[in-house]
Amino acid sequence: xxxxxxxxxxxxxxxxxxxxxxxxxxxxxxxxxxxxxxxxxxxxxxxxxxxxxxxxxxxxxxxxxxxxxxxxxxxxxxxxxxxxxxxxxxxxxxxxxxxxxxxxxxxxxxxxxxxxxxxxxxxxxxxxxxxxxxxxxxxxxxxxxxxxxxxxxxxxxxxxxxxxxxxxxxxxxxxxxxxxxxxxxxxxxxxxxxxxxxxxxxxxxxxxxxxxxxxxxxxxxxx
Length: 223
Prior knowledge:
Blueprint: H1 2-15, H2 22-42, H3 54-79, H4 83-86, H5 91-115, H6 121-147, H7 154-176, H8 184-210, H9 215-219
Helix pairs in contact: 2-3, 2-6, 3-5, 5-8, 6-7, 6-8, 7-8
């Protein structure tokens, strides 16, 4: 029985190899973090009148757990990266990268919490298409980063955010004219847009710090 168990473990390891090298674990955790962000952004479209399924709620809980825990795990594994894996990067730069992810996790949590509050139907109608485009854009960025974190483009993220904010600010000014600007729903909707902006700024900060990381060396196979 012991021999059969050993052979079974070897068979699984052959078909599904798992490395415990610090650089490999770091990259796996990074992908896991961005996949969690991508799924959680997708849940922002859930309609309160149409509750999610039990499986969807379970997935959300699991990804919220990743959002809370993975940055701390990345800090530990990032500090354990050998010089050969860092290449031209430094341990301080890697830790600074992890700090941007921790800040991004906080902003993601704020976005999720704010989305759960009552929103202005008037602003939802006026800004719905642009907020939808913003959400889909964030999903696509997170999905891409989960596989290619080195693809983070600071200049592109910055310009896209500035364009989106310019459009929204103009629409908001027009939408709230003559409306009860002090209503709780309006305030919550403005907070939601601010939370979207916070997540986007978090991505911009990650992209800025990512530019100093030697990703090619980090992915390089070593024996």
